[in-house]
């Protein structure tokens, strides 16, 4: 039996009296592009925060590569291969694009005692070289060579989102969590971003969990989709199954749920 890369088991998260997540469970396999959708306030970002370690669920368990990480700190989770981007940009706006990406890498290496030891016994140059090569690969991949020296805060919104993705990718995560990567983008920027996400998944082999409101993109590029509503999982399946699900259509698209409707004869 293959072990899922990520296994979320019946997690519940409360903020005082508010139930942000109620017994949500799902698994993501290596190589999947898995999307989470749902109306505003459904609990999508809270769920991502539980996976990255920012929030701690009161109940349930989260396993990564078969190990229980439910109580691990966010930095430890980043070091074992869970990367993320944020709904609102989280770049150092006064720093260059290159430095923003390097910061992520240094953070990763700082967590790695072995590379730390190498530094002291003279392997620093080789390490630094590999380090820079990786960053250059990421810069090439995301087509941001032309702005590598620019101050991040001066870039257009679409480009800043791309730099933020570059910083997360430079950490070489096994699993990357994308919180609304296309929010606020125009059509062209969205198309570009969708292509980068698909390439990351198909060519770089990264497993992706994405929250996104643009249904066209979600249904187009996801392997599987999960739907949250009021902190509960209401559906999970292939894009076409989700689109055809009457409960989803009602909760998410605001359409009437034929299963819940009264027969015409009775309501007349
Ligand atoms: N730190 C927090 N403290 C208190 N309540 C919170 C906190 N974070 C989230 N919530 C609440 O939890 C619920 C779920 O919020 P969450 O941001 O996870 O939803 P979402 O599905 O990501 O929404 P959106 O699509 O608007 O981003 C909301 O009612 C929200 O107000």
UniProtKB/TrEMBL annotation:
SMART domains: AAA. PROSITE patterns: ABC_TRANSPORTER_2. Gene3D superfamilies: P-loop containing nucleotide triphosphate hydrolases. GO terms for molecular function: ATP binding; ATP hydrolysis activity. InterPro entries: AAA+_ATPase (IPR003593), ABC_AA/LPS_Transport (IPR051120), ABC_transporter-like_ATP-bd (IPR003439), BCA_ABC_TP_C (IPR032823), P-loop_NTPase (IPR027417). The keyword Transport applies. One of its GO terms (cellular component) is plasma membrane. This is Amino acid/amide ABC transporter ATP-binding protein 1 (HAAT family).
């Amino acid at each position: 039996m293959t072990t899922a890369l990520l296994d979320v088991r019946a997690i519940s998260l409360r903020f005082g009296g508010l139930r942000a997540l109620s017994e949500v469970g799902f698994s993501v396999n290596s190589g999947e592009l898995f999307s989470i959708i749902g109306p505003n306030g459904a609990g999508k970002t809270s769920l991502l925060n539980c996976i990255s370690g920012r929030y701690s669920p009161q109940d349930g368990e989260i396993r990564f590569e078969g190990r229980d990480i439910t109580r691990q700190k966010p930095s430890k989770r980043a070091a074992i291969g869970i990367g993320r981007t944020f709904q609102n940009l989280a770049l150092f706006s006064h720093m260059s694009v290159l430095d923003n990406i390097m910061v992520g890498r240094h953070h990763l290496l700082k967590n790695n005692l072995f590379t730390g030891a190498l530094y002291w016994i003279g392997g620093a140059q080789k390490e630094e070289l590999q380090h820079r090569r990786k960053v250059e690969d990421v810069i090439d991949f995301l087509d941001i060579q032309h702005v590598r020296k620019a101050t991040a805060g001066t870039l257009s919104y679409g480009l800043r989102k791309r730099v933020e993705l570059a910083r997360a990718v430079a950490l070489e995560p096994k699993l990357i969590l994308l919180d609304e990567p296309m929010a606020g983008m125009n059509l062209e920027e969205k198309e570009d971003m969708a292509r980068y996400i698909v390439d990351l998944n198909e060519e770089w082999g990264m497993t992706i969990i994405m929250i996104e409101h643009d249904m066209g993109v979600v249904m187009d590029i996801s392997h599987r989709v999960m739907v949250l509503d009021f902190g509960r999982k209401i559906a999970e399946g292939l894009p076409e199954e989700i689109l055809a699900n009457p409960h989803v259509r009602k909760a998410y698209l605001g359409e009437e749920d034929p299963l819940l409707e009264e027969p015409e004869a009775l309501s007349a």
